[in-house]
UniProtKB/TrEMBL annotation:
Database matches in Pfam families: O-FucT
Annotated organism of origin: Lupinus albus (White lupine)
Ranges of Acidic residues composition bias in the record: 522-543, 561-573
Name of the protein in its database record: O-fucosyltransferase family protein
Composition skew (Polar residues), residue ranges: 548-558
Region ranges (Disordered): 512-573
Keywords, comma-separated and alphabetical: Carbohydrate metabolism, Fucose metabolism, Glycosyltransferase, Transferase
GO molecular function: glycosyltransferase activity
PANTHER family: O-FUCOSYLTRANSFERASE 16
Length: 573
């Protein structure tokens, strides 16, 4: 009986306390909800938070903020766990683009009365991709290639022809075993010039596509000109054709003596100033910013100016700057590029060559970058007006000078993933994996956004983590990933014996890999694209634009599509 009374008493007390417990629990839930709303979004990964907890935080006190981390940028690059001027293990990799013994000579396979002409499109580097692919297309068709026509009407409005940019005699001579190349169409019997039939080829056109679409016309007309020829050949081809692409791009295409000599003079003047230098393709001109649809805090003036330029591309949708920034489609500001480089270990004493047109915002925009890197150079500061006079009114020739200085730099930094960035990235992989840095803008943007709440140590640690896989080291990109001009994996071999000697016993090596002295760094790279790709006229230009502007991480290349949007005056070079 006494037990039942005590039990009843406890139940009564519990019922009385239940509203109090509910009120406390409700208050705690409300507090947690409020904290989740007010708390800032994470700016770095768990790895960075871990490092932050183990790093000393320099706290400075002032009247406004007590205990706020001090973001003080050091003048030096700090101690790195790597040589910032070289790529790890690059000595074990080299370009290998020779054809096999089964690859027949041009004299054997070239058919009479088959002539292929192409008209390129875009700026210098976009046209370069077209020239490379045209040689392979001529080989597929067993045709004679007429020296390509350069684009003289697009955004860059450069009147130069092929022989004023490239060494045409070397081009013809070097490729003589692969494809027969002539300077112009031969006359017909009776002295009349042969006229070419003009047509278009779809993008991503593979070998079967050329055989089915172009060859029947070529057999009937004898001479065919393919217009707007850029990215008109499939990214994936058989090994022999991929190696042929490399022979054209890295060996047959040489600049004229005039351009080459001036470019080497600029390189020499950079070397006179410093043993090492960085070349930066800044690409922060108004046309690129307008096309990207990004916003950089310039208020109504910026929106009005860039909006007027953006309206040139009538097929572009209204931009969403915040979304573009989150997705990594916005070029970094000059200041952000400078902060990234400092975090990667490059101090204020480093010399930087900037390949750029007129930067949006002028000197005011460049000031933070110049403050971080005072040794700031360009064509215009290294050469006199008189020296640049033969080039200054020709955009492609000026771009060729930048190309040479960037190609020969110790470190190349690109601020967008356009044609020049891709071509140079592939070239630098082929010729020894020289460091090539592309900002992982998709991940870095949060760091830049929240840097005022971070110490320099935490910020720099985050940059180094996010840039792994974006600095041009061997095997950053898996074979077959990305565009071939950016990742020519078929043409890069590994000196496996040297690597085995250095890392003996560290890992099991497959039988095929171990028994060959030089092993291509590639999977079987056969064409798996559809025989009859859709004509690009039917594609949504906005979808193409969105893909082309993306600055994704390497791991995001699960379904790569590197076709450039077919928009007039696309500012990607």
């Amino acid at each position: 009986m006494a037990f039942q009374r005590r039990r009843h008493h406890y139940l009564q007390r519990f019922r009385l306390m239940l509203p109090l417990i509910s009120a406390v629990a409700g208050a705690l839930l409300f507090l947690f909800a409020l904290l989740s709303i007010l708390a800032p979004s994470p700016v770095v990964t768990d790895h960075i938070h871990h490092r932050r907890n183990n790093s000393p935080i320099n706290v400075h006190t002032d009247g406004d903020a007590i205990g706020k981390p001090a973001f003080r940028v050091p003048s030096g690059g700090g101690k790195m766990d790597r040589d910032v001027w070289t790529s790890r293990n690059s000595e074990h990799f080299y370009g290998c683009s020779n054809s096999s013994s089964k690859f027949q000579k041009a004299q054997v396979i070239t058919k009479p009365d088959r002539y292929l002409l192409i008209a390129t499109s875009g700026g210098l580097n976009q046209q370069r991709t077209g020239i490379v692919d045209a040689v392979v297309a001529a080989r597929i068709l067993n045709a004679t290639l007429v020296v390509p026509k350069l684009d003289q009407r697009s955004f860059w409005k450069d009147s130069s022809n092929f022989s004023e940019i490239f060494d045409v005699d070397w081009f013809i001579s070097y490729l003589s075993k692969d494809v027969k190349v002539i300077k112009q169409l031969p006359p017909r019997k009776g002295g009349k010039m042969l006229s070419a039939h003009s047509m278009r080829v779809p993008r991503k056109c593979n070998e079967r596509c050329y055989i089915n679409r172009i060859l029947p016309v070529l057999l009937k007309k004898h001479a065919v000109q393919l217009n707007k020829f850029d990215y008109r050949l499939a990214n994936k081809l058989t090994t022999e054709y991929q190696k042929m692409r490399c022979r054209v791009n890295y060996h047959a295409l040489r600049f004229t003596n005039l351009i080459h000599a001036m470019g080497e003079k600029l390189v020499h003047r950079m070397r006179m100033r410093s043993k090492h230098y960085i070349a930066l393709h800044l690409r922060f001109e108004s046309d690129m910013l307008a096309f990207s649809g990004c916003y950089y805090g310039g208020g109504e003036k910026e929106q009005k100016e860039l909006g007027a330029i953006r309206r040139r591309w009538k097929t572009l949708r209204k931009s969403n700057p915040d979304k573009a920034r989150r997705q990594g489609r916005c070029p970094l500001t000059p200041e952000e590029v400078g902060l990234m480089l400092r975090a990667l270990g490059y101090g204020s004493d480093v010399h930087i060559y900037v390949a750029s047109g007129e930067v949006y915002g002028g000197e005011e925009t460049l000031a933070p970058l110049k403050a971080l890197f005072p040794n700031f150079h360009s064509k215009e500061t290294l050469a006199t007006k008189e020296e640049l006079e033969p080039f200054s009114t020709f955009s492609s020739r000026m771009a060729a000078l930048d190309f040479i200085v960037c190609d020969e730099s110790d470190v190349f930094v690109t601020n967008n993933n356009g044609n020049m960035a891709k071509i140079l990235a592939g070239r630098r992989r082929y010729f020894g994996h020289k460091p090539t840095i592309r900002p992982n803008a998709k991940k870095l943007y949060r760091l830049f956004l929240g840097r005022s709440n971070l110490t320099w140590e935490v910020f720099a640690s985050g940059v180094r983590i996010f840039q792994k896989g974006f600095i041009g080291e061997p095997k950053e990109l898996r074979p077959g990933r990305g565009g071939f001009h950016e990742n020519p994996s078929t043409c890069i071999c590994e000196d496996s014996m040297a690597k085995m000697d250095k890392h003996s016993g560290l890992r099991k090596i497959g039988k095929d890999y171990a028994t060959k002295k030089n092993v291509p760094n590639d999977d079987l790279d056969v064409d798996d694209e559809s025989e009859e790709p859709d004509m690009d006229d039917d594609e949504d230009p906005n979808d193409l634009v969105e893909r082309s502007m993306s600055n994704e991480t390497i791991s995001d290349y699960e379904n790569p599509n590197f076709e450039e949007p077919e928009l007039d005056e696309f500012p990607s070079d």
